[in-house]
Amino acid sequence: MIRHLTCAGGALGVVIGSDKAIGLLFWVTVIAAVTTLEVIARAGHRNLPSLADLIERYLPHPVVRAAAIGLWLYAGWHLFSH
Amino acid sequence: MEIRRHREPPTRSGSRSGRWLAGLAGAALIVGSSAFESGMPLGTWRARFMTFGCALAAAVAGTLWRGFRHQHRAAPSSPAGPSPTAARSHSRGALVWLSVMVIAAVWDVLGLLTPPDKHHLTLSALVLAYQALHALVFAVWLIAGWFLFAVPIRRRARA
Question: How many beta-carbon contacts under 8 Å exist across A and B?
Answer without folding.
Answer: 145
